[in-house]
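Reopening this one. Same input as before:
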Amino acid sequence: MRAVHRILINRDHARLWYGQAISSVGDYVFSTTLVLWVATVLAKDQSWAPVAVSGVIMAMGLGVLLVGPLAGVFVDRWNSLRTMLGTEVIRGALVLLLVVASLLPADTLPIWAWLTLIYTVVFALNVAGQFFRPARLTVIRDIVTGDADRARAAGIAQATAGAAAMIGPPLAAPLLFTIGLQWALIFNALSYAVSYVAIRSVRLIDDQDDHEAAPAVRASVRAEFVAGVQFFARSRFLVALLVIAVIGQFGTGALNTLNVFFLIENLRASPELYGYVGTAMGIGGVAGALCAGRVVQWIGAKPTAWISAVVGGALVIVYSRQTSFVSGLVLIVVLTVPIFMLNTALTPLLLAAAPKRFLGRVVAVFFPVTQLASMLAALLAGWLAGSVLPSIDVSVGGIHFGTIDLIFAAAGLLIVLAGIFAWVALPESVSEPEPEREPQPVPVPGSGSEPVPGSGSEPARGPVPEPAVSQRRSPS
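Same output, byte for byte:
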Protein backbone atom coordinates (compact mmCIF):
# COMPACT_ATOMS: atom_id res chain seq x y z
CA MET A 1 0.00 0.00 0.00
CA ARG A 2 2.83 2.39 0.79
CA ALA A 3 4.35 1.71 -2.63
CA VAL A 4 1.01 2.58 -4.25
CA HIS A 5 0.85 5.80 -2.24
CA ARG A 6 4.36 6.73 -3.40
CA ILE A 7 3.32 6.21 -7.01
CA LEU A 8 0.26 8.35 -6.36
CA ILE A 9 2.42 11.02 -4.65
CA ASN A 10 1.02 10.80 -1.11
CA ARG A 11 -1.76 9.23 0.94
CA ASP A 12 -4.29 12.05 0.60
CA HIS A 13 -3.78 12.35 -3.14
CA ALA A 14 -4.08 8.57 -3.47
CA ARG A 15 -7.42 8.63 -1.63
CA LEU A 16 -8.66 11.43 -3.85
CA TRP A 17 -7.56 9.45 -6.89
CA TYR A 18 -9.32 6.25 -5.84
CA GLY A 19 -12.68 7.98 -5.74
CA GLN A 20 -12.14 9.91 -8.95
CA ALA A 21 -11.05 6.82 -10.90
CA ILE A 22 -14.29 4.99 -10.10
CA SER A 23 -16.33 8.14 -10.58
CA SER A 24 -14.80 8.88 -14.00
CA VAL A 25 -15.72 5.40 -15.26
CA GLY A 26 -19.23 5.98 -13.94
CA ASP A 27 -19.45 9.29 -15.80
CA TYR A 28 -18.48 7.70 -19.11
CA VAL A 29 -20.96 4.87 -18.58
CA PHE A 30 -23.65 7.46 -17.80
CA SER A 31 -23.04 9.76 -20.78
CA THR A 32 -22.64 6.87 -23.26
CA THR A 33 -25.77 5.18 -21.92
CA LEU A 34 -27.86 8.33 -22.39
CA VAL A 35 -26.61 8.84 -25.95
CA LEU A 36 -27.39 5.20 -26.82
CA TRP A 37 -30.82 5.34 -25.16
CA VAL A 38 -31.81 8.54 -26.96
CA ALA A 39 -30.53 7.25 -30.32
CA THR A 40 -31.87 3.66 -30.15
CA VAL A 41 -35.03 3.99 -28.03
CA LEU A 42 -36.49 7.48 -27.76
CA ALA A 43 -35.59 8.65 -31.29
CA LYS A 44 -35.34 5.28 -33.01
CA ASP A 45 -35.79 5.50 -36.81
CA GLN A 46 -36.50 9.24 -36.58
CA SER A 47 -34.85 11.71 -38.96
CA TRP A 48 -34.23 14.08 -36.05
CA ALA A 49 -32.33 11.48 -34.00
CA PRO A 50 -28.90 13.14 -34.58
CA VAL A 51 -30.31 16.47 -33.37
CA ALA A 52 -31.71 14.78 -30.25
CA VAL A 53 -28.31 13.21 -29.50
CA SER A 54 -26.51 16.50 -30.10
CA GLY A 55 -28.80 18.04 -27.47
CA VAL A 56 -27.12 15.87 -24.83
CA ILE A 57 -23.72 17.21 -25.88
CA MET A 58 -24.97 20.81 -25.94
CA ALA A 59 -26.45 20.44 -22.44
CA MET A 60 -22.98 19.46 -21.21
CA GLY A 61 -21.31 22.45 -22.82
CA LEU A 62 -23.91 24.98 -21.67
CA GLY A 63 -23.35 24.01 -18.05
CA VAL A 64 -19.70 24.97 -18.44
CA LEU A 65 -20.28 28.22 -20.30
CA LEU A 66 -23.20 29.64 -18.33
CA VAL A 67 -22.21 28.78 -14.77
CA GLY A 68 -18.45 28.16 -14.87
CA PRO A 69 -17.31 31.81 -14.65
CA LEU A 70 -19.39 32.58 -11.54
CA ALA A 71 -18.81 29.25 -9.80
CA GLY A 72 -15.23 30.22 -8.96
CA VAL A 73 -16.43 33.09 -6.73
CA PHE A 74 -18.26 30.66 -4.47
CA VAL A 75 -15.48 28.08 -4.54
CA ASP A 76 -13.05 30.74 -3.32
CA ARG A 77 -15.42 31.51 -0.43
CA TRP A 78 -16.25 27.99 0.62
CA ASN A 79 -14.36 25.15 2.26
CA SER A 80 -12.97 23.06 -0.63
CA LEU A 81 -13.59 19.63 0.85
CA ARG A 82 -17.14 20.48 1.91
CA THR A 83 -17.79 21.82 -1.58
CA MET A 84 -16.63 18.55 -3.13
CA LEU A 85 -18.67 16.46 -0.67
CA GLY A 86 -21.79 18.51 -1.26
CA THR A 87 -21.31 18.15 -5.00
CA GLU A 88 -21.27 14.38 -4.79
CA VAL A 89 -24.49 14.38 -2.75
CA ILE A 90 -26.25 16.63 -5.27
CA ARG A 91 -25.02 14.71 -8.31
CA GLY A 92 -25.92 11.36 -6.83
CA ALA A 93 -29.43 12.64 -6.05
CA LEU A 94 -29.85 13.92 -9.64
CA VAL A 95 -28.88 10.57 -11.12
CA LEU A 96 -31.20 8.74 -8.71
CA LEU A 97 -34.02 11.04 -9.86
CA LEU A 98 -33.39 9.87 -13.41
CA VAL A 99 -33.29 6.26 -12.18
CA VAL A 100 -36.77 6.65 -10.67
CA ALA A 101 -38.09 8.20 -13.90
CA SER A 102 -36.55 5.40 -15.99
CA LEU A 103 -38.63 2.82 -14.11
CA LEU A 104 -41.62 4.09 -16.11
CA PRO A 105 -42.27 2.53 -19.53
CA ALA A 106 -40.82 4.69 -22.30
CA ASP A 107 -44.28 5.43 -23.76
CA THR A 108 -45.59 6.78 -20.43
CA LEU A 109 -44.29 10.26 -21.24
CA PRO A 110 -44.14 11.98 -24.63
CA ILE A 111 -40.72 12.05 -26.24
CA TRP A 112 -40.33 15.79 -25.73
CA ALA A 113 -40.85 15.30 -21.98
CA TRP A 114 -38.22 12.56 -21.81
CA LEU A 115 -35.72 14.69 -23.74
CA THR A 116 -36.45 17.71 -21.57
CA LEU A 117 -35.84 15.64 -18.43
CA ILE A 118 -32.58 14.20 -19.79
CA TYR A 119 -31.26 17.56 -20.96
CA THR A 120 -32.15 19.17 -17.63
CA VAL A 121 -30.40 16.49 -15.58
CA VAL A 122 -27.30 16.55 -17.81
CA PHE A 123 -27.19 20.35 -17.61
CA ALA A 124 -27.54 20.27 -13.80
CA LEU A 125 -24.80 17.63 -13.49
CA ASN A 126 -22.43 19.75 -15.52
CA VAL A 127 -23.34 22.86 -13.55
CA ALA A 128 -22.35 20.86 -10.49
CA GLY A 129 -19.06 20.00 -12.18
CA GLN A 130 -18.17 23.67 -12.41
CA PHE A 131 -18.01 23.82 -8.62
CA PHE A 132 -16.20 20.53 -8.25
CA ARG A 133 -13.31 21.16 -10.64
CA PRO A 134 -11.86 24.34 -9.06
CA ALA A 135 -12.48 22.94 -5.57
CA ARG A 136 -10.54 19.80 -6.50
CA LEU A 137 -7.66 21.85 -7.91
CA THR A 138 -7.60 23.87 -4.68
CA VAL A 139 -7.33 20.66 -2.66
CA ILE A 140 -4.59 19.32 -4.93
CA ARG A 141 -2.71 22.59 -4.57
CA ASP A 142 -2.74 22.05 -0.79
CA ILE A 143 -1.84 18.35 -0.68
CA VAL A 144 0.69 18.35 -3.57
CA THR A 145 3.61 20.78 -3.69
CA GLY A 146 6.22 21.58 -6.34
CA ASP A 147 5.89 21.75 -10.13
CA ALA A 148 7.13 18.19 -10.68
CA ASP A 149 4.66 16.56 -8.28
CA ARG A 150 1.81 18.78 -9.47
CA ALA A 151 2.61 17.77 -13.05
CA ARG A 152 2.58 14.15 -11.88
CA ALA A 153 -0.81 14.73 -10.28
CA ALA A 154 -2.15 16.30 -13.48
CA GLY A 155 -0.65 13.47 -15.51
CA ILE A 156 -2.23 10.85 -13.28
CA ALA A 157 -5.58 12.62 -13.61
CA GLN A 158 -5.34 12.74 -17.41
CA ALA A 159 -4.14 9.15 -17.61
CA THR A 160 -7.06 8.10 -15.42
CA ALA A 161 -9.48 10.01 -17.66
CA GLY A 162 -7.98 8.32 -20.71
CA ALA A 163 -8.29 4.89 -19.11
CA ALA A 164 -11.87 5.67 -18.06
CA ALA A 165 -12.66 6.68 -21.65
CA MET A 166 -11.47 3.26 -22.80
CA ILE A 167 -13.28 1.31 -20.04
CA GLY A 168 -16.55 3.20 -19.55
CA PRO A 169 -18.14 3.30 -23.05
CA PRO A 170 -17.69 -0.45 -23.72
CA LEU A 171 -19.45 -1.15 -20.41
CA ALA A 172 -22.40 1.08 -21.26
CA ALA A 173 -23.85 -0.94 -24.15
CA PRO A 174 -23.96 -4.31 -22.30
CA LEU A 175 -25.46 -2.66 -19.22
CA LEU A 176 -28.14 -0.89 -21.28
CA PHE A 177 -29.13 -3.70 -23.64
CA THR A 178 -28.60 -6.66 -21.29
CA ILE A 179 -29.83 -5.62 -17.84
CA GLY A 180 -31.52 -2.30 -18.55
CA LEU A 181 -31.14 1.48 -18.39
CA GLN A 182 -31.74 1.64 -14.63
CA TRP A 183 -28.66 -0.40 -13.76
CA ALA A 184 -26.42 1.68 -16.00
CA LEU A 185 -27.64 4.79 -14.17
CA ILE A 186 -27.33 3.15 -10.74
CA PHE A 187 -23.70 2.34 -11.57
CA ASN A 188 -22.98 6.06 -11.89
CA ALA A 189 -24.91 6.90 -8.72
CA LEU A 190 -22.80 4.37 -6.80
CA SER A 191 -19.64 5.91 -8.25
CA TYR A 192 -20.59 9.21 -6.61
CA ALA A 193 -20.96 7.39 -3.29
CA VAL A 194 -17.46 5.92 -3.69
CA SER A 195 -16.08 9.36 -4.48
CA TYR A 196 -17.85 10.84 -1.42
CA VAL A 197 -16.26 8.27 0.90
CA ALA A 198 -12.80 8.84 -0.62
CA ILE A 199 -13.03 12.64 -0.34
CA ARG A 200 -14.33 12.34 3.23
CA SER A 201 -11.09 10.56 4.21
CA VAL A 202 -8.87 13.47 3.02
CA ARG A 203 -7.78 15.89 5.75
CA LEU A 204 -7.04 19.56 5.07
CA ILE A 205 -6.60 21.20 8.47
CA ASP A 206 -5.22 24.44 7.04
CA ASP A 207 -8.07 24.73 4.55
CA GLN A 208 -10.69 24.22 7.24
CA ASP A 209 -9.08 26.66 9.62
CA ASP A 210 -8.78 29.27 6.90
CA HIS A 211 -12.50 29.18 6.16
CA GLU A 212 -13.86 28.60 9.65
CA ALA A 213 -11.86 31.49 11.08
CA ALA A 214 -13.13 33.93 8.42
CA PRO A 215 -15.22 36.79 9.78
CA ALA A 216 -18.94 36.83 9.04
CA VAL A 217 -18.66 39.42 6.28
CA ARG A 218 -18.24 39.05 2.58
CA ALA A 219 -18.15 41.15 -0.56
CA SER A 220 -20.86 40.87 -3.19
CA VAL A 221 -20.64 38.09 -5.76
CA ARG A 222 -20.31 40.66 -8.54
CA ALA A 223 -17.47 42.50 -6.77
CA GLU A 224 -15.50 39.31 -6.14
CA PHE A 225 -16.08 38.09 -9.69
CA VAL A 226 -14.86 41.39 -11.14
CA ALA A 227 -11.84 41.32 -8.82
CA GLY A 228 -11.01 37.82 -10.09
CA VAL A 229 -11.34 38.79 -13.74
CA GLN A 230 -9.21 41.91 -13.19
CA PHE A 231 -6.54 39.85 -11.46
CA PHE A 232 -6.53 37.40 -14.38
CA ALA A 233 -6.38 40.18 -16.97
CA ARG A 234 -3.42 41.91 -15.31
CA SER A 235 -1.41 38.70 -15.01
CA ARG A 236 0.93 38.34 -17.95
CA PHE A 237 1.51 34.70 -17.02
CA LEU A 238 -2.17 33.74 -16.84
CA VAL A 239 -3.07 35.58 -20.05
CA ALA A 240 -0.22 33.85 -21.85
CA LEU A 241 -1.38 30.45 -20.57
CA LEU A 242 -4.91 31.16 -21.76
CA VAL A 243 -3.77 32.24 -25.23
CA ILE A 244 -1.66 29.08 -25.54
CA ALA A 245 -4.59 26.89 -24.51
CA VAL A 246 -7.02 28.63 -26.87
CA ILE A 247 -4.68 28.37 -29.87
CA GLY A 248 -4.06 24.72 -29.03
CA GLN A 249 -7.83 24.07 -28.77
CA PHE A 250 -8.39 25.46 -32.25
CA GLY A 251 -5.80 23.01 -33.54
CA THR A 252 -6.98 19.90 -31.69
CA GLY A 253 -10.66 20.81 -32.19
CA ALA A 254 -10.33 20.35 -35.95
CA LEU A 255 -8.68 16.97 -35.40
CA ASN A 256 -11.45 15.73 -33.11
CA THR A 257 -14.24 16.95 -35.39
CA LEU A 258 -12.99 15.71 -38.77
CA ASN A 259 -11.02 12.59 -37.87
CA VAL A 260 -13.82 10.22 -38.92
CA PHE A 261 -13.89 11.81 -42.41
CA PHE A 262 -10.09 11.68 -42.62
CA LEU A 263 -10.29 7.97 -41.80
CA ILE A 264 -12.71 7.31 -44.67
CA GLU A 265 -11.41 9.69 -47.35
CA ASN A 266 -7.64 9.87 -46.72
CA LEU A 267 -6.80 6.65 -44.91
CA ARG A 268 -9.27 4.73 -47.12
CA ALA A 269 -10.55 2.70 -44.18
CA SER A 270 -13.99 1.43 -43.25
CA PRO A 271 -15.93 3.56 -40.75
CA GLU A 272 -16.26 0.44 -38.57
CA LEU A 273 -12.56 0.88 -37.76
CA TYR A 274 -13.12 4.33 -36.25
CA GLY A 275 -13.31 2.84 -32.74
CA TYR A 276 -9.64 1.91 -33.02
CA VAL A 277 -8.79 5.60 -33.49
CA GLY A 278 -10.28 6.35 -30.07
CA THR A 279 -8.36 3.47 -28.54
CA ALA A 280 -5.12 4.73 -30.13
CA MET A 281 -5.72 8.21 -28.75
CA GLY A 282 -6.41 6.72 -25.32
CA ILE A 283 -3.13 4.78 -25.38
CA GLY A 284 -1.14 7.82 -26.46
CA GLY A 285 -2.92 10.00 -23.91
CA VAL A 286 -2.17 7.68 -21.02
CA ALA A 287 1.49 7.43 -22.06
CA GLY A 288 1.86 11.19 -22.48
CA ALA A 289 0.14 12.02 -19.21
CA LEU A 290 2.28 9.57 -17.23
CA CYS A 291 5.52 10.75 -18.88
CA ALA A 292 4.80 14.43 -18.32
CA GLY A 293 5.59 14.44 -14.59
CA ARG A 294 9.05 12.96 -15.15
CA VAL A 295 9.80 15.35 -18.02
CA VAL A 296 8.71 18.36 -15.95
CA GLN A 297 11.01 17.18 -13.18
CA TRP A 298 13.91 17.01 -15.65
CA ILE A 299 13.49 20.23 -17.65
CA GLY A 300 10.72 22.24 -15.94
CA ALA A 301 7.07 22.96 -16.73
CA LYS A 302 7.58 25.81 -19.22
CA PRO A 303 10.05 23.95 -21.52
CA THR A 304 7.83 20.87 -21.36
CA ALA A 305 4.83 22.94 -22.46
CA TRP A 306 6.38 24.69 -25.45
CA ILE A 307 8.44 21.74 -26.69
CA SER A 308 5.39 19.44 -26.46
CA ALA A 309 3.30 21.90 -28.46
CA VAL A 310 5.90 22.27 -31.22
CA VAL A 311 6.51 18.52 -31.49
CA GLY A 312 2.80 17.70 -31.28
CA GLY A 313 1.88 20.23 -33.95
CA ALA A 314 4.60 18.97 -36.26
CA LEU A 315 3.33 15.40 -35.82
CA VAL A 316 -0.21 16.52 -36.69
CA ILE A 317 1.16 17.92 -39.97
CA VAL A 318 2.89 14.57 -40.63
CA TYR A 319 -0.38 12.79 -39.78
CA SER A 320 -2.22 14.89 -42.37
CA ARG A 321 -0.03 13.34 -45.10
CA GLN A 322 -0.86 9.72 -44.25
CA THR A 323 -2.74 7.55 -46.74
CA SER A 324 -2.94 4.16 -45.01
CA PHE A 325 -4.87 3.09 -41.93
CA VAL A 326 -1.92 1.42 -40.17
CA SER A 327 0.45 4.37 -40.52
CA GLY A 328 -2.32 6.77 -39.53
CA LEU A 329 -3.11 4.73 -36.41
CA VAL A 330 0.57 4.69 -35.40
CA LEU A 331 0.80 8.47 -35.90
CA ILE A 332 -2.33 8.99 -33.77
CA VAL A 333 -0.68 7.19 -30.84
CA VAL A 334 2.59 9.11 -31.28
CA LEU A 335 1.11 12.60 -31.73
CA THR A 336 -1.25 12.21 -28.77
CA VAL A 337 1.70 11.75 -26.40
CA PRO A 338 3.12 15.32 -26.68
CA ILE A 339 -0.35 16.88 -26.83
CA PHE A 340 -1.27 15.27 -23.51
CA MET A 341 2.12 16.28 -22.12
CA LEU A 342 1.28 19.88 -23.08
CA ASN A 343 -2.08 19.71 -21.28
CA THR A 344 -0.42 18.17 -18.23
CA ALA A 345 2.39 20.74 -18.08
CA LEU A 346 -0.08 23.64 -18.14
CA THR A 347 -1.64 22.53 -14.83
CA PRO A 348 1.35 23.22 -12.51
CA LEU A 349 1.91 26.52 -14.34
CA LEU A 350 -1.71 27.49 -13.68
CA LEU A 351 -1.52 26.47 -10.01
CA ALA A 352 1.73 28.40 -9.54
CA ALA A 353 0.32 31.55 -11.15
CA ALA A 354 -2.88 31.75 -9.10
CA PRO A 355 -2.85 32.61 -5.36
CA LYS A 356 -5.05 30.27 -3.36
CA ARG A 357 -7.72 32.87 -2.62
CA PHE A 358 -8.12 33.51 -6.38
CA LEU A 359 -7.69 29.95 -7.65
CA GLY A 360 -11.40 29.22 -7.96
CA ARG A 361 -12.03 32.35 -10.00
CA VAL A 362 -8.92 31.81 -12.14
CA VAL A 363 -10.01 28.27 -12.99
CA ALA A 364 -13.57 29.51 -13.59
CA VAL A 365 -12.24 31.90 -16.25
CA PHE A 366 -9.66 29.57 -17.77
CA PHE A 367 -11.71 26.43 -18.40
CA PRO A 368 -14.93 28.00 -19.75
CA VAL A 369 -12.91 30.07 -22.23
CA THR A 370 -11.02 26.99 -23.43
CA GLN A 371 -14.32 25.06 -23.58
CA LEU A 372 -15.78 27.84 -25.75
CA ALA A 373 -12.69 27.72 -27.97
CA SER A 374 -13.13 23.97 -28.38
CA MET A 375 -16.79 24.39 -29.40
CA LEU A 376 -15.94 27.19 -31.85
CA ALA A 377 -13.11 25.09 -33.29
CA ALA A 378 -15.53 22.22 -33.92
CA LEU A 379 -18.01 24.56 -35.62
CA LEU A 380 -15.28 26.24 -37.68
CA ALA A 381 -13.79 22.94 -38.82
CA GLY A 382 -17.21 21.62 -39.86
CA TRP A 383 -18.03 24.87 -41.67
CA LEU A 384 -14.72 24.90 -43.55
CA ALA A 385 -14.99 21.25 -44.56
CA GLY A 386 -18.68 21.42 -45.52
CA SER A 387 -19.13 24.88 -47.03
CA VAL A 388 -15.89 26.75 -47.74
CA LEU A 389 -13.52 23.98 -48.83
CA PRO A 390 -15.82 21.06 -49.74
CA SER A 391 -13.88 19.82 -52.76
CA ILE A 392 -10.54 21.58 -52.76
CA ASP A 393 -7.73 19.95 -54.74
CA VAL A 394 -4.46 21.88 -54.78
CA SER A 395 -0.73 21.21 -54.90
CA VAL A 396 1.85 23.24 -53.00
CA GLY A 397 5.52 22.57 -53.78
CA GLY A 398 4.58 19.27 -55.39
CA ILE A 399 2.56 18.18 -52.33
CA HIS A 400 -1.10 17.47 -52.98
CA PHE A 401 -3.76 18.72 -50.55
CA GLY A 402 -7.42 17.81 -50.29
CA THR A 403 -10.04 19.29 -47.99
CA ILE A 404 -9.50 17.37 -44.74
CA ASP A 405 -5.73 17.04 -44.89
CA LEU A 406 -5.37 20.76 -45.67
CA ILE A 407 -7.41 21.62 -42.58
CA PHE A 408 -5.36 19.15 -40.51
CA ALA A 409 -2.10 20.68 -41.74
CA ALA A 410 -3.36 24.13 -40.78
CA ALA A 411 -4.42 22.75 -37.38
CA GLY A 412 -0.93 21.33 -36.82
CA LEU A 413 0.59 24.69 -37.75
CA LEU A 414 -1.65 26.39 -35.16
CA ILE A 415 -0.41 24.02 -32.46
CA VAL A 416 3.21 24.73 -33.46
CA LEU A 417 2.46 28.48 -33.22
CA ALA A 418 1.03 27.90 -29.73
CA GLY A 419 4.34 26.32 -28.74
CA ILE A 420 6.38 29.16 -30.18
CA PHE A 421 4.15 31.65 -28.39
CA ALA A 422 4.67 29.74 -25.12
CA TRP A 423 8.44 29.86 -25.60
CA VAL A 424 8.40 33.62 -26.22
CA ALA A 425 5.57 34.85 -23.99
CA LEU A 426 5.81 32.79 -20.80
CA PRO A 427 8.11 34.51 -18.31
CA GLU A 428 10.80 32.44 -16.65
CA SER A 429 9.25 32.90 -13.21
CA VAL A 430 5.77 33.58 -11.92
CA SER A 431 5.40 37.04 -10.44
CA GLU A 432 1.74 37.85 -10.15
CA PRO A 433 0.25 41.28 -9.42
CA GLU A 434 -1.92 41.68 -6.36
CA PRO A 435 -5.30 43.35 -6.84
CA GLU A 436 -5.04 47.09 -6.46
CA ARG A 437 -7.95 46.93 -4.07
CA GLU A 438 -10.02 44.07 -2.76
CA PRO A 439 -13.81 44.39 -3.10
CA GLN A 440 -15.33 46.08 -0.05
CA PRO A 441 -16.91 43.52 2.30
CA VAL A 442 -20.55 43.90 3.21
CA PRO A 443 -21.50 43.08 6.81
CA VAL A 444 -23.89 40.21 7.30
CA PRO A 445 -26.95 41.46 9.19
CA GLY A 446 -26.74 40.63 12.88
CA SER A 447 -23.09 39.60 12.74
CA GLY A 448 -21.87 42.68 14.59
CA SER A 449 -18.88 42.77 12.26
CA GLU A 450 -18.11 46.00 10.44
CA PRO A 451 -15.22 46.35 7.99
CA VAL A 452 -12.86 49.25 8.48
CA PRO A 453 -12.91 51.48 5.37
CA GLY A 454 -9.55 51.66 3.66
CA SER A 455 -8.08 48.91 5.81
CA GLY A 456 -7.17 46.82 2.76
CA SER A 457 -8.22 43.66 4.54
CA GLU A 458 -9.08 40.61 2.43
CA PRO A 459 -12.81 40.05 1.87
CA ALA A 460 -14.19 37.33 4.03
CA ARG A 461 -15.35 34.06 2.62
CA GLY A 462 -18.23 32.47 4.45
CA PRO A 463 -18.27 28.71 4.96
CA VAL A 464 -20.26 26.66 2.50
CA PRO A 465 -23.58 25.40 3.80
CA GLU A 466 -23.33 21.72 4.69
CA PRO A 467 -23.61 19.64 1.53
CA ALA A 468 -25.78 22.22 -0.19
CA VAL A 469 -24.09 23.78 -3.19
CA SER A 470 -20.99 22.02 -4.43
CA GLN A 471 -19.76 20.00 -7.31
CA ARG A 472 -17.39 17.97 -9.49
CA ARG A 473 -16.32 17.14 -13.03
CA SER A 474 -18.56 16.77 -16.05
CA PRO A 475 -19.47 13.46 -17.71
CA SER A 476 -18.07 14.47 -21.04
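So the earlier flakiness isn't reproducible anymore. For the record, Residues 1-211 form a domain with the Growth Hormone; Chain: A; fold (CATH 1.20.1250.20).
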